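[Q] Does anyone have a clean structure-token version of this?
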Amino acid sequence: MRRALFLYNPESGRGHIARNVANIVRIFADGGWELIPQKIDFAVNPFDRHPEIERVVVAGGDGTVNFAVNRMRERGLSLELGIIPAGTANDFAGIVGMDRDPLEAARQIVEGEIEHLDCGVVNGLHFVNIFSFGIFTTTSQHTPDKQKHRFGKLAYLGEGIKEVYRMHAIPLHVRTETEEFDTRVLIFLVFNGETAGGIRLANTSSVRDGKFDCLMLEKRNFLRSCWAMVRFVCGGHPRSVRHLRAASLQITSPRNEPTDVDGQRGAEFPLDVRCMPGLLRVVCPRKTGRCGSEPTTDK
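[A] Here you go.
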């Protein structure tokens, strides 16, 4: 019987995951797997005590998946990764195509197929969905977990309002494999995935193409910048939103801005950001045949 580690937070999914641990274990057992449940302790590496597992199943959002991937890579492991969505936004699980019902997601993992998906790395920290800095990008870090579990995405509203009052331009020097430039931005988003907080922003992004989709909101006056953000989220194409596709970025700034990886504390400046093609071995639902969107060909 194959063995898998099941990492879960008892508070995830408003307690729904904890109530269904036995049912999830049974679904895996019926599929020929010994599933070992373990409550997540973010202070320790969960892979130190389980040397013979082939797969890790994570119940949580992007931050929990991020934790599992980084601890796995710290030990030089390349385990199969299954995701049961149980976080606030579940952006990466949405790309993979996982069902929001935990029992159905468990069945998808048991019956699924392995796909090799891209992963981002910034200064040694891995990220599955997004690396970012600037206004609103550290809101998730500052929002207490209890509020996230209780109110979902609405929990971010109060922290987001505080971010508006701290809005400022960030001077940057950016170098990619094809270009080099200086700019001043309010937000810098590096997408491996497609969505942020459940909002689809990176329309040409793919987790299979070996490149990032990067969005920068360049500084204008306060009202024009706010209006540009609204227009972009609503599908517009304001000039102050700059888009580029790159496999690597080197970013420097005289300011050491706080950064974010998948909703967790990120790296410090200067930044070396690289896409690692096919690094993740992710279990995808077999009915989709493929995780994520088709890669986009640059013109």
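[Q] Thanks! Anything notable?
[A] The mean pLDDT is 86.
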